[in-house]
């Protein structure tokens, strides 16, 4: 399967703990996105990378959230000091080059903070 | 991205065509119409997109009105596996991301 891969698919953590999600985009896709989705809502944009550069961050991305894409390939999204409100599905997506806006999503990583 | 409006829910009989409407009255000339769907607990799946002309692929057809203020996604023969939330998004070349609304929850009824 050469689609967007996300790990872990499910994570249950206690409030206050740190969690990290990993995303492997489609090969040769130099643009990578993180979205968050809560129940009953559509996906909400969090942040965007072009190669290793983080070009945009949503106001939803509080100081407890950090995303990296160190070599322009895989990306990580870390949430520090998790809160119950962080419970959501975290989606990674990627797209090739500069043409078109079609982005391809992974299956998502579910986070439950208890 | 231009705002889009979709009905919150629709039903369709299995085997019939599902016609999902979307209004995007403020769409600008360089904005495409994208459709995605999301089956429960999975990531959104790209279906189709178009600018002015009608488009068809193996999954669906996209009909865009001449004034581009609305569009319809057509699933020609709906199956139970097409039950999902369908999102219509208007996005232009100058936008780096897609903005999702709440979409239309399509239920295909046996």
What is the topological layout?
The complex is a heterodimer of chains A (about 110) and B (about 110).
Chain A: E1 5-7, E2 10-13, E3 19-24, E4 31-37, E5 44-50, E6 53-57, E7 65-68, E8 75-79, E9 88-95, E10 104-105, E11 109-113
Parallel strand pairs in A: 2-11
Antiparallel strand pairs in A: 1-3, 3-8, 4-5, 4-9, 5-6, 7-8, 9-10, 9-11
Chain B: E1 9-13, E2 18-23, E3 31-38, E4 45-50, E5 55-56, E6 61-64, E7 70-75, E8 84-92, E9 104-109
Parallel strand pairs in B: 1-9
Antiparallel strand pairs in B: 2-7, 3-4, 3-8, 5-6, 6-7, 8-9
Report on this model:
- The complex is a heterodimer of chains A (114) and B (110).
- Chain A has strands spanning 5-7, 10-13, 19-24, 31-37, 44-50, 53-57, 65-68, 75-79, 88-95, 104-105, 109-113.
- Chain A has 114 residues and is mainly β.
- In chain A, strand 9 (88-95) and strand 10 form a beta hairpin.
- Chain A is globular and about 40 Å long.
- In chain A, strands 2, 4, 5, 6, 9, 10 and 11 form a seven-stranded mixed beta sheet that branches. A four-stranded antiparallel beta sheet of chain A has the order 1-3-8-7, with no helix packed on it.
- Chain A is built from no helices and eleven strands.
- The N and C termini of chain B lie far apart (36 Å).
- Chain B is globular.
- In chain B, a hairpin with a 5-residue loop joins strand 6 (61-64) and strand 7.
- A five-stranded mixed beta sheet of chain B has the order 1-9-8-3-4, with no helix packed on it.
- Chain B has strands spanning 9-13, 18-23, 31-38, 45-50, 55-56, 61-64, 70-75, 84-92, 104-109.
- Chain B has 110 residues and is an all-beta fold.
- The interface between A and B is medium-sized, with 26 and 23 residues.
């Amino acid at each position: 399967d050469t689609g967007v891969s996300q790990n872990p698919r499910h994570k249950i953590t206690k409030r206050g703990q740190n969690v990290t999600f990993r995303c492997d985009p489609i090969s040769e896709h130099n643009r990578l996105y993180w979205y968050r989705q809560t129940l009953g809502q559509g996906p909400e944009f969090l942040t965007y990378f072009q190669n290793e550069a983080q070009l945009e961050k949503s106001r939803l991305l509080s100081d407890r959230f950090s995303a990296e894409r160190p070599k322009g390939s895989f990306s990580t999204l870390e949430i520090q000091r998790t809160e119950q409100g962080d419970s959501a599905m975290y989606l990674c997506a990627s797209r090739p080059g500069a043409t078109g806006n079609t982005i391809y999503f992974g299956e998502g990583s579910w986070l439950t903070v208890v | 991205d231009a705002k889009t409006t979709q009905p919150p829910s629709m039903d369709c009989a299995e085997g019939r065509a599902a016609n999902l409407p979307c209004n995007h009255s403020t769409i600008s000339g360089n904005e495409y119409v994208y459709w995605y769907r999301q089956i429960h607990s999975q990531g959104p799946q790209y279906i189709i997109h178009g600018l002015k002309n009608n488009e068809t692929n193996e999954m669906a057809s996209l009909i865009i009105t001449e004034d581009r203020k609305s569009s319809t996604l057509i699933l020609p023969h709906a199956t139970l596996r097409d039950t999902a939330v369908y999102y219509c998004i208007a996005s232009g070349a100058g936008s780096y991301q897609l903005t999702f609304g709440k979409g239309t929850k399509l239920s295909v009824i046996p």
